[in-house]
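Problem 12. The chain below contains 261 residues. Write out its predicted structure in token notation.
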Amino acid sequence: MNLQFDINLANNYKSNSQIARVLTENWVKNNSYCPCCGNAVLSEFENNKPVADFFCKICLEQYELKSKDGNKVGNKIVDGAYSAMIDRITSDDNPNFFFLNYDKKNLFVNNFLIIPKHFFIPEIIEKRKPLSETAKRAGWIGCNIDISKVPESGKIFLIKNSEIISKKVVQQKWGSTEFLKSKSKESRGWILDIMNCVDSIKKETFTLEEIYRFEEKLKQKYPNNNFIKDKIRQQLQILRDKAIIEFVGRGKYKKISYGNF
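Solution.
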């Protein structure tokens, strides 16, 4: 991967937003690959199509690109209309999302990550306030993508702090969560919740009792479930079976890492 943008592409544009779009989309086209199957070439959709930005001709996965300048990706990414975004991520052909942030002055990539589509649930889409009555699009409601609510397993870096991550590692991490695709929305929601609980424990190993401390929080989200602890254990077993965590004995678990992210 070449982390530098091709600045010559910006010569015919004056708008900063157009320049950013051209440079970032061209960079992805020429430097990225399909994290799902490893295909070295991503194809572009035609302009102004109500679909994603790129797709893989081999596995047919779709990818939408979100980019911004800065040293860090941050927790929130500004997006378009709230209702359209909700419809998009709950549809049968919802895309995966690339997030790219770059150095605006020196025009090179700082971070580039993919969040697989099965991590996108309505809860991570934040509704913004409607535009004021004096605005050109009065009443229009936009949204933010709050990636702080995405489990760490769902944030797959291809480039982190301008360091290129091994393609093998990227695909290993991608493959480790593909089982979520086949889960129902309710089952997937529970698994993601427990993943976030595990992430909240800032150490490599943790105990069942530490996860039980999230019981009240989960009870508030699932008020009709009277067996929260049973559900927690069930989800931990799924994560263990899928090699997201490792059971080390006597109520202790260990987080599994797929290299340097």
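Discussion. The chain is about 30% helix and 25% strand. Students who got a different answer should revisit the alignment rule from Section 12.3.
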